[in-house]
Write a structure and sequence with these properties.
Rossmann fold; alpha/beta; 4-stranded parallel sheet
Length: 161
Amino acid sequence: MPVPPPREPGRYSVALVCLGNICRSPTAQVVLADRVAVHSAGTGDWHVGDPMDARAAATLSAAGYDPSRHRARVYDASWADAHDLVMAMDHQNLADLGGRSERVGLFRDLDPVGTGEDVPDPYYGGADGFADVLTMVERTSDALVAALAGALDDRPAGSSA
């Protein structure tokens, strides 16, 4: 998935979406928070107002991130117009968002290892699943930020600084 241009020059806004907004999308939000304007939400409403899953939070904390401010919320369709890019964590989340478009795709579309694959939901598994998700999220976040550097570059192609 090519990264679409920003709606505002010099600023890029990403929305991340999973099922309950307590594991995958908030993990990605925490990892990306210092690098882009980012929000996360779930397609389901049963965790609204809850903090991140304790296992996801512990995995992030152990890696040096601060997951403490997250509270789950539900995706609102207006986010598609308010964000430059909306990224679903799996194919079902993508279907719940109405499918692919220029600004809507899968988070792992930019993963150099698993392009177009799902970020597996670790909720019903053990600690290893949360660590695996964090590894995927960090790798894909690095690729996303690298792609965004080009999207935010206002210079014409081929020019030098």
